[in-house]
């Protein structure tokens, strides 16, 4: 087992961001359980306010199954920066789940960027997703340009990856060439009966060396930096 990096006493925060349906909530549920399993004190804020026809939020999952830490209901975005600090476990990690990214100045996603140490951008490795991701890159540049009080470190997580196709290599290459940090671990497209597609709302299976396990390790190293 890989030793768990120690987090500073004041704890750390990570935002899970990405376009709609990029496996943010599914992956975060697994990450929380894996982090907790290695003794990291975890909590999460579910900023994805479910609409009338939506049932799959991290909060509903956490109410049905133990994800290893408290999942808090949505926090009003104008209070997120302050509240998320209070909800961060001592020496631990608070993760913030979000709904489909929209670049609205002063909007809820900017509040998340203002609140976290690391922003993890989840994306599928396709040309269209690459094009759409320009929006978060522009937002990050904007924060730097205006000298924002908090500019998180951006890391990219490739999700729903078909390993047999070469598009994940092309996407990684393009992003790396542009100077972005793409994590080694990719979350595979897994729509089998017992795969990640079916795992939402069920107990999380902790599998050593699985993509979720490896991503949990890699992200912990990132938040520790
Ligand atoms: N690795 C995966 N392989 C295949 N299907 C997946 C995978 N991860 C999630 N899914 C499926 O894709 C859909 C979207 O997943 P999920 O709700 O986790 O995405 P999300 O990014 O949180 O979406 P939203 O933007 O709506 O919050 C769900 O039907 C889920 O079961
Ligand atoms: Mg979600």
Which runs of at least 5 residues are low in confidence (pLDDT < 50)? none
The secondary-structure class comes to: alpha/beta
CATH superfamily: P-loop containing nucleotide triphosphate hydrolases
Structure annotation, total helices: 7
Give the name of the CATH architecture. 3-Layer(aba) Sandwich
Task: Tell how many strands the DSSP assignment holds.
Answer: 7
Which tags fit this structure?
Rossmann fold, alpha/beta, seven-stranded parallel beta sheet, binds magnesium ion, binds adenosine-5'-triphosphate
Q: What can you tell me about this protein's structure?
A:
This protein has seven helices and seven strands. The chain is of the alpha/beta class. The longest helix is centred in the middle third of the chain and has 19 residues, at 127-145. The chain binds adenosine-5'-triphosphate and magnesium ion (MG). Adenosine-5'-triphosphate binds at residues 18, 20-26, 48, 56, 99-100, 160, 187, 189-191, 196-197, 200. Residues 24-25, 48, 97 line the site of magnesium ion.
Give the secondary structure arrangement, pairings included.
Elements: E1 12-18, H1 24-37, E2 42-46, H2 58-64, E3 69-72, H3 80-87, E4 93-97, H4 108-113, E5 118-123, H5 127-145, E6 153-161, H6 167-177, E7 182-188, H7 211-224
Parallel strand pairs: 1-4, 1-5, 2-3, 2-4, 5-6, 6-7
Magnesium ion binds next to helix 1.
Summarize the structure in short:
The chain is α/β, with parallel strands linked by helices and 225 residues long. The chain has helices at residues 24-37, 58-64, 80-87, 108-113, 127-145, 167-177, 211-224; strands at residues 12-18, 42-46, 69-72, 93-97, 118-123, 153-161, 182-188. The chain starts with 11 loop residues before the first strand and ends with a helix.
């Amino acid at each position: 087992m890989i030793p768990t990096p120690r987090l500073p006493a004041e704890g750390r925060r990570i935002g899970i961001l990405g376009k709609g349906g990029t496996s943010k909530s599914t992956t975060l549920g697994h990450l929380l359980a894996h982090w907790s399993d290695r003794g990291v004190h975890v909590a999460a804020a579910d900023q994805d306010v479910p609409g009338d026809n939506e049932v799959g939020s991290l909060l509903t999952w956490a109410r049905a199954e133990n994800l290893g830490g408290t999942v808090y209901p949505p926090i009003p975005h104008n209070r997120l920066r302050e509240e998320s600090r209070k909800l961060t476990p001592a020496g631990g990690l608070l993760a913030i789940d979000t709904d489909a990214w929209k670049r609205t100045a002063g909007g809820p996603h900017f509040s998340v960027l203002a609140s976290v140490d690391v922003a993890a951008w989840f994306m599928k490795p396709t040309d269209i997703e690459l094009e759409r991701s320009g929006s978060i890159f522009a937002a990050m540049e904007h924060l730097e340009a205006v000298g924002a009080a908090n500019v998180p470190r951006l890391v990219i997580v490739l999700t729903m990856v078909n390993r047999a196709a070469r598009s994940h290599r092309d996407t990684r290459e393009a992003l790396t060439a542009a100077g972005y940090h793409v994590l080694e671990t990719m979350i595979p497209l897994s729509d089998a009966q017992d795969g990640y597609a079916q795992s939402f709302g069920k107990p999380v299976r902790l599998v050593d060396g699985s993509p979720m396990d490896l991503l949990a390790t890699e992200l912990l190293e990132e938040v520790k930096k």
